[in-house]
Write a structure and sequence with these properties.
Layout: E1 5-6, E2 12-15, H1 23-29, E3 35-38, H2 44-54, E4 58-62, H3 71-83, E5 88-93, H4 95-107, E6 111-116, E7 127-132, E8 135-140, E9 148-151, H5 153-156, H6 161-179, H7 186-208, H8 213-232, H9 237-249, H10 253-267, H11 273-283, H12 288-298, H13 315-323, H14 335-347
Bound molecules: nicotinamide-adenine-dinucleotide (NAD).
């Protein structure tokens, strides 16, 4: 089996081109016998490739993972898991597919091996968001963190350009909020900056040379660092706004994070000046929010919530939902502050316009 990295959380992590084809060795290492592969419908070919790589260990493919982990899909997958007597799942895909693997691990003891194909970072955390009757709730349990993560740079090399950029900004948002988290530590600060530095260097490179596997691996190392701090410290305004926009307005996950990040950062820039100073230094300039907005704009990231389908008259409802339950943020959260932020993000204006 390949050289692996064993992390403090007990997670086994490996980075290697083509490692998805060696998934059987990781199944054998945890002594699992019957593997159900999980994917979305869009990635069922990749799911089937994984089934073939597993040979006789595979007991099938469940290719119905969707965004926000609806409980009814989990129930269907669980019934399937029981019917084939699986003792292991391999989730091959983005945060939606890995989320389904976690939702199954919550309900039934099993081994979970994640093969990520985006930069969202769910594979690094013990967190699960689930949707039931239109309401998204989040829980955390150490047993939800997949035991093994196989980062195969060939899988992110096929991400379309926009998904590459938005998914990377999604990962970076975990690190930026970790830097000003109330429960941050020297270790989480170091890991957050490691993740941001990896994306700052490698993301422009992979946008111009999508199949550079070394640079793609560097972005995956950034993902691991950013995803791990997401699981270590509390998030604030940025994640609250994205949760509201995704959960209640159906906006797409990665694009929403990409648009909100510079605005949430700018909004906290004064209150968290010391914590965010390294972000401004890394991305250039004195204002971390503007520096991130310029970085995103240079990479042609989406900049306006209106382009994702949010109506201008939805803003007031977002303000209400995002301010109704108090939560900690470096700058106290007010309706006026959130409204001003959302109006700029809706129009695609720079954060300090
Ligand atoms: P996703 O998993 O929903 O994928 C989006 C679409 O892109 C899907 O159709 C998928 O099949 C496709 N796709 C994925 N990888 C691809 C590739 N390499 N090439 C081509 N198409 C590909 O998107 P996501 O942004 O990775 O995940 C979002 C979900 O993950 C949300 O539900 C979010 O809440 C959750 N999430 C959870 C955590 C956590 O810690 N619990 C962390 C981050 C995200």
């Amino acid at each position: 089996m390949r050289d692996t990295e064993k992390h403090g959380s007990g997670q086994t992590v490996v980075y290697a081109p083509g490692v998805r084809r060696e998934v059987a060795a990781f199944v054998d290492a945890v002594d699992a016998k019957r593997v159900l592969v999980l994917s979305t419908a869009q990635q069922s070919d990749l799911g089937m490739e994984c089934v073939e790589a597993l040979g006789t260990r595979a007991v099938g493919l469940f290719a119905k993972a969707v965004m926000h982990t609806p409980v009814e899909v989990t129930q269907e997958a669980l019934a399937h898991l029981h019917s084939v007597a699986a003792d292991c799942v391999v989730s091959v895909g983005g945060g939606s597919t890995i989320g389904l693997g976690k939702a199954l691990a919550l309900r039934h003891p099993l081994h979970h091996i994640a093969v990520p194909t985006t930069y969202a970072g769910s594979e690094c955390t013990p967190i699960l968001g689930q949707t039931e009757e239109g309401k998204k709730t989040t829980l955390s349990d150490p047993k939800l963190r997949p035991a093994s993560v196989l980062y195969d740079p060939e899988l992110v090399a096929t991400l379309p350009r926009e998904m590459t950029v938005t998914s990377a900004l999604n990962a970076m948002a975990h690190a930026v909020e970790a830097l000003y988290a109330r429960d941050r530590t020297a270790l989480s600060d170091a890991m957050a900056m490691e993740g941001l530095t990896a994306f700052h260097t490698a993301l422009p490179h992979v946008v111009h040379t999508p199949d550079d596997l070394q640079a793609r691996e560097d972005t995956q190392r950034g993902t691991w660092a950013c995803g791990t701090v997401l699981g270590q410290v509390g998030m604030a305004l940025h994640h609250k706004l994205c949760h509201t926009l995704g959960g209640s307005f159906g906006l797409p996950h990665a694009q929403t994070h990409a648009i909100i990040l510079p605005h949430a950062t700018a909004s906290n820039a004064k209150a968290a000046a010391t914590a965010l100073a390294p972000v401004a230094r890394l991305f250039g300039g004195s204002d971390p929010g503007q520096a991130l907005w310029d970085f995103a704009a240079r990479l042609d990231a989406p900049l306006a919530l209106r382009d994702l389908g949010l109506q201008k008259n939805d803003i007031e409802r977002v303000v209400t939902l995002a301010t109704q339950n108090p939560y900690w943020n470096p700058r106290p959260v007010t309706a006026d502050g959130v409204r001003a932020l959302l109006e700029r993000a809706w129009a695609g204006a720079p954060p300090n316009a």
